[in-house]
């Protein structure tokens, strides 16, 4: 059973890259390291201002941030902080940026204007675009154009261009070694993976064991989703899996390898657990998930043991205008008043 089943001509520089071949108080403290970042969403009307948000990252030792659009005040606040950034190109901008001149303008306004004072790590061109979405046809051209614009600005060596996907692109995820993209997704994602392989960029993947669990609670034990299983739950040849996060990530790796992306790394661009809104969405479960995830990322997965997993927790704040599910409003590590919901140390 698949645990996640519920869940023209280009410019010279494009040819060039192909030629190159390439706070509710808790009793425990969550500790993390350089592999961990936090997503900074903004779908709310009660959040601190951008400078306060960046200051909160700094005061908590959070060294990586993901934002979903080029918010100018956030970019300004990030100057000189040394916080590494995933900067998003919103889905609504993909059609425009699929035009080379618009992509160049976008890069000039949102990247060149802030470099090197802001440490851009990745440009995420689209978030969770599905193969059937109208925007899907624009993702790869937009990625290519953003890349070309960075090359022109001599910034391509400082950051990578990618896109963020979710688990619905997987047609099979069980066992992890049999992970593959669905037939409907393959024609969409395979050219993207080829681009990533050619430019040395990772694939960004949003992984939520919470959604997998609530979609099939009779099959998936909560301990497997929360990193609390005491022994191997899934035996996949010589590899044993004690948690669903590893199993999902390794299924992604298998799928990417099958799509001729054996050297493409995967960055977990979102992962989290809500603290309210559903039976399984509790403060205790969310605290357990975040604690165990932060403790786990430096260990790697069974398929890639000892290799730290760059992971971005979702999200910095509860966002009161998200939806439609109530749980969408309760993924924050902090309340809008900047009080922590959990005690977390990133140092």
TrEMBL record:
Record's superkingdom? Eukaryota
Q: What is this protein called?
A: glucan endo-1,3-beta-D-glucosidase
Please give the organism.
Answer: Theobroma cacao
Q: Which GO terms describe its biological process?
A: carbohydrate metabolic process
Name any one GO molecular function. Answer: glucan endo-1,3-beta-D-glucosidase activity
Q: Which Pfam families match?
A: Glyco_hydro_17
- Spell out the family assignment given in the record's similarity comment: Belongs to the glycosyl hydrolase 17 family.
SUPFAM superfamilies, sorted: (Trans)glycosidases
Record keywords: Hydrolase included?
A: yes
**Class of the enzyme per the UniProt entry, highest EC level:** hydrolase
Under PROSITE patterns, the record lists: GLYCOSYL_HYDROL_F17
- Coiled-coil residue spans: none
List membrane-spanning regions.
12-30
| Entry's EC annotation | 3.2.1.39
| The UniProt record lists the keyword Membrane | yes
Q: Which reaction does it catalyse?
A: Hydrolysis of (1->3)-beta-D-glucosidic linkages in (1->3)-beta-D-glucans
- What keywords are annotated for this sequence in UniProt? Glycosidase, Hydrolase, Membrane, Transmembrane, Transmembrane helix
Alphabetical list of InterPro entries matching this protein: GH, Glyco_hydro_17, Glyco_hydro_17_plant
